[in-house]
Amino acid sequence: MKNPYTILGVSQDAEKGEIMKRKIYSILIVFFILIIGIEVLRESKSILETVKFSLSIWESNIFPSLFPFFVISDLLINCGFATFLGELLKPLMYKLFRLKGESSFALVLSMLSGFPSGAKFTKELHTNGFINEHEASKLLTFTHFSNPLFVLGTISIMFLNNYEIGILILF
């Protein structure tokens, strides 16, 4: 039986060349991974300090500003607030966005709690059958807001040391 590469006009030398290229790429990838690993071990003290600092920011600022909204939103969905808010804002949501009224729940809470909660609330509405996939993808395009507590607490106070600037950023 003839070699299929020879039948197609590709020689065995070209096949060997491709195999060689793959081996060289694999060796280069392993080499770069080893270099990165060595650098991580050499600079482990500064890397650990950076990780500790990042985790402390997450623990003291980001988690406290997001967690209450996630818990409250789950309670509200399970208590039927999404349906209530949907009925209340149904005409407005349909006129503005051509969406069901229940999608107003994700819009309102994403304004109050910021990202990534808009995506989380949209997923919950889709999972619970309040909206379909097309409506969910449409809703995701305009439920991306900054968390007010994050803007006021982290940005204005921690980074800028000025509460008034945080209020200006919000509005």
Question: What does this entry show, briefly?
Answer:
With 171 residues, the protein is an all-alpha fold. The protein has nine helices and no strands.
Report on this model:
The chain has 171 residues and is mainly alpha-helical. The protein is 80% helix and 0% strand. Helix 3 packs antiparallel against helix 8, helix 4 packs across helix 5 and helix 5 packs antiparallel against helix 6. The protein starts with a helix and ends with a helix. The relative contact order is 0.08. The model has no long low-confidence stretch (mean pLDDT 83).
Point out poorly predicted stretches. none
Gyration radius, rounded: 26 Å
Q: Which strand-content bin applies to the residues?
A: under 5%
Specify the overall morphology: flat
Mean pLDDT: 83
Helix content: over 70%
Secondary-structure-derived class: mainly alpha
- Distance from N terminus to C terminus (CA atoms, Å) equals 75 Å
- Number of helical segments with 4 or more residues: 9
- The SSE string, one letter per element, is HHHHHHHHH
Question: Number of DSSP strands?
Answer: 0
Major beta sheet, specifics?
none
